[in-house]
Amino acid sequence: SDKDQMKKKVGEYAATFIQNGTAIGIGTGSTAYWMIMALGAKVREGFQITAVPTSRATVELAQAQGIPLATLNDVDRLALTIDGADEVDPAFQLIKGGGGAHLQEKMVAAASDRMIVIADEQKLVNRLGKFPLPIEVIPFGWKQVQRRVAALGCPSSEIRQRDGKPWITDHGNYILDAHFGAIADAPALGHALHEIPGVVEHGLFIGLATEVLVGYADGTVKELRK
Ligand code: DER
């Protein structure tokens, strides 16, 4: 589909930013998929890389491509992380977590000197919040968290389900998808969410993305500057 073509183009273009002989973070999702495919091809041509995956799903994908892997505990810093996003605003603040991996994604991005976000054009928004904000919560007492999230101005949120059961993250937690609508102050909301006992991590990425590569329907790819 055209959407796949956009993701493929921007994912492959992002792979050209990876320097030989470095350690990088590799993201999760259908756009990161294409970057991982392109990285696999480079590895098979002798490219030296160490990749830290951001989810179990990405571990499996990267292993199948023969990409040498490391865990986040094996490295001090990463030169670069390349990952997707669900929303990107003009300040490069993000909503992530559509794929349920934002806890690992944020830890890997935070350990990286650069974070390149790869997105198709629909991900660009003026104001974050149309996409429901994923919040990883521990299963114990999650309804208390839901009540406090409501008090922050989000009356509508639900535990992410798969086949009628709560979807479980790589770390055995739930995801609460919170329909905030337009978020006026993302940093303030991020801090307020971390005050709630039982919140593991939320999908607001503030001050992490350093570059954004966008795939457009006409087949072009653009690098955004802040
Ligand atoms: O879950 C995530 O954070 C993914 O990176 C997601 O935000 C982007 O996934 P996509 O590239 O499949 O749209």
In words, what does this structure look like?
It is a single chain. Helix content is 29%, strand content 27%. The protein has six helices and 15 strands. The chain has helices spanning 2-15, 30-44, 56-64, 102-110, 142-151, 186-194, and strands spanning 22-26, 49-53, 78-83, 87-88, 94-95, 112-120, 133-137, 157-159, 161-162, 165-166, 174-178, 199-202, 204-205, 211-215, 221-224. Strands 2-1-3-6-14-15 form a six-stranded mixed beta sheet, sandwiched between helices. The longest helix has 15 residues, at 30-44. The radius of gyration is 17 Å and the shape is globular. The protein binds D-4-phosphoerythronic acid (DER). Keywords: Isomerase. InterPro entries: NagB/RpiA_transferase-like (IPR037171), Ribose5P_isomerase_typA_subgr (IPR020672), Ribose5P_isomerase_type_A (IPR004788). Its EC number is 5.3.1.6.
Short description:
This protein has helices at 2-15, 30-44, 56-64, 102-110, 142-151, 186-194; strands at 22-26, 49-53, 78-83, 87-88, 94-95, 112-120, 133-137, 157-159, 161-162, 165-166, 174-178, 199-202, 204-205, 211-215, 221-224. With 226 residues, it is of the alpha/beta class.
Please outline the major beta sheet: 6 strands, mixed
Unreliable spans are: none
Gross morphology is globular
Q: State the secondary-structure class.
A: alpha/beta
Distance between the termini: 30 Å
Oligomeric state of the chains present here: single chain
Report strand order across the widest sheet: 2-1-3-6-14-15
User: What is the succession of H and E elements?
Assistant: HEHEHEEEHEEHEEEEHEEEE
Helix proportion of residues, in percent? 25-40%
Give Rg in angstroms: 17 Å
How much of the sequence lies in strands comes to 25-35%
Mean pLDDT comes to 97
Small-molecule binders: D-4-phosphoerythronic acid
| Topology, number of strands | 15
With helices defined by DSSP (H or I, 4 residues minimum), what is the helix count? Answer: 6
Family: Belongs to the ribose 5-phosphate isomerase family.
InterPro entries: NagB/RpiA_transferase-like (IPR037171), Ribose5P_isomerase_typA_subgr (IPR020672), Ribose5P_isomerase_type_A (IPR004788)
Protein name: Ribose-5-phosphate isomerase A
Keywords: Isomerase
